[in-house]
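During the no-cost extension, the postdoctoral fellow (Dr. R.K.) reprocessed legacy sequence entries with the updated structure-token encoder. One reprocessed record is reproduced below for audit purposes.
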Amino acid sequence: MTKSKAFHHIALGAAVGLMLQACGIPEMTTKKENTQLPSNFRPELTQPANSAKVKWKDFFEDRNLLKLIDIAVVNNKEINIMMQRISVAQNEIQARRGAYLPFVSIGSGVGADKVGKYTRNGVVEDNLPLANGGFPAVLGDYQFGLSSSWEVDIWKKLRNATQVAVFDYMASSEGKNFLLTNLVAEVAHSYYELVTLDNQLDNLEKNIAIQQNGLNIVKQLQLFARSNTLAIKRYEAEVAKNKSKIYEIKQQITVTENRVNYLLGRTPAPIQRSTADFMELKPKLINTGIPSQLLQNRPDLRQAELELKAANLNIAVARANFYPSLNIKAGVGFDAFAMRYLVNTPESLAASLAGDLVAPLVNKNAIIAEYKNANAMQVQAAFEYEQSIIKAYTEVLNQISNIDNLAKNYQLKKTQVDSLVKSIDISTQLFKSARADYLDVLLTQRDALDAKRELIDTKQKQINAMVDLYKSLGGGWQS
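Re-encoded structure tokens follow.
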């Protein structure tokens, strides 16, 4: 057989092998993600400006809060753990890149061999004349040289696997950004919760002072037989009840301070905060932009998109397992039966070159299952991406509505508080002139306390809604 005919036979065999492999690949259906979103969040919200692009250092104005966030971004343990995961993903890229390059190693070996006299090799050695009279009883084997192996990436399996590692690394980075967004929002929430508790404590202490004053009035009126012991006891009970709430609020302050310190990655320490002007604080006006900007601004959506890209490529990697793989091995070095001959050239020079073209033929259950899993994971990743988009859009809508309703709620509650504060003075004067019962005064004071507490809580909800809308739009990770 001529060389040309031999080559044609090899090529024909390879083609038949490829056809057989192709016939063994199951048909699978992938999913194309749907990223369509409405053109706007509301008809009146069509401005392209987007507050998500504002850095958190520019978004928040409270200096004490900015200092806390700055510490948390650097020192938070969860962020630092995530950074190590990113480092692992980056190292995986280096490992995958090395897989499709030739492996070259250097080594040496020593061995000895004694064959039986009545074996094939023994008979050959006895009858083979040598210059020194015959083979030694024990034949040495000394080797030193380079060896190389290389899997030729015919089907881009290894390069696609490397790109998968790149996408995984980028997704990990986006995961860190999403974690950072949540961290900034959580620190802000906890900080404003502390400020709210401070205001609740101040409101409670002022109300106790008012009730204590009322108690003193009732005691004085009893001296003139214009009040009775029942009124005094009811006032004393109300004062004691509200004083007990002071310690409840102080415990909540302690817990919240410790939560802030935990987010900052440190042991408990006092938290500096600005409390005095909380009730005058106006929530910042936020530009929502258009819904399609969520795909670029929200780190969790970019993470889901990158995970989907990795899943798409994993299908190509799994499909390549059905095709033949070409491995080339080569070596060059010195080989001799005695150490004194090891570096003799050219007599001791040795070289080898071999190639393997191997494809799975029987029992391909494992690679079929891996291929099906890759397809299933691609469909799963597509659904998760779509779900993340819907969730992000819904979160923004909820916070837009929440901000509007809280603004109206706050104005009505403020009117209620103003009226009740005025009614305290009116009821007290009426009680002094015997034109109102002590219960009217007591209930008015109680209603005013409850209304002021609800007003403070509503202010906190307004600030939290502002922070949540900023986070929902994708803000908070830019440093």
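The chain has two domains: 26-100+153-323+369-472, 103-152+325-358. The mean pLDDT is 87. The remaining legacy entries will be reprocessed before the final report is submitted.
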